[in-house]
Amino acid sequence: DFWQNSPRANAGFIALILVIQIAVHLPMLHLSPRGMHVWRQTVGHAAIQNYANEDDRFWFPRADIRMTTDDTGAIYHELPLTYWLAAKVYRLGWLDINTSAHLMQLISNLLLIPGAFYTLLALGATRQRCALFTFLISFSPLYLAYAPLLEPNLLGLSFFLTGTALLLPSIAMGRYRLSFLLGTLAMILAPTATPTFLFFGLPLALYA
Question: What pTM value is reported for the model?
Fold first, then answer.
């Protein structure tokens, strides 16, 4: 049947999950910070505000929160990739700044879905188990609630799973081409979002 034999089955299943997740999360893009670590999300929004309205130098993130007259607002946190991109989207004039922030975060976190499926597939799981794992992780309460929010933990997981999905087959086949380079980039981005993923990447480094 299609699921067992078609080479399009994997891509078709992932596309279906992506469409459902986009439909579920679109109404949430305009909402304010909520849930866990609202303060952390607020700092992220403040950094986007600064990129959009003041200084858009990527390597000089600043929060639009000033306590004194000589406060530059300089902040030190995870790599501000999605924050900087959100400010660029806002400057196009299509979306308000809050929606731009949540849209860029959601797009980044959608990487978790193909990443989860192909990571398990690379580890030797059957299609059915890969599909079940991907379904469960993408419909978990944590993912449903936080996929569009400025929370770095889920973003780190999305990068990490994407990296493993690309790296494991490349290493197994000895092919160090584009997929290997993209997987390496994703693995580098994972700990820049959440340093914990430095430890998660150690087994993969030893495997390589």
Answer: 0.87
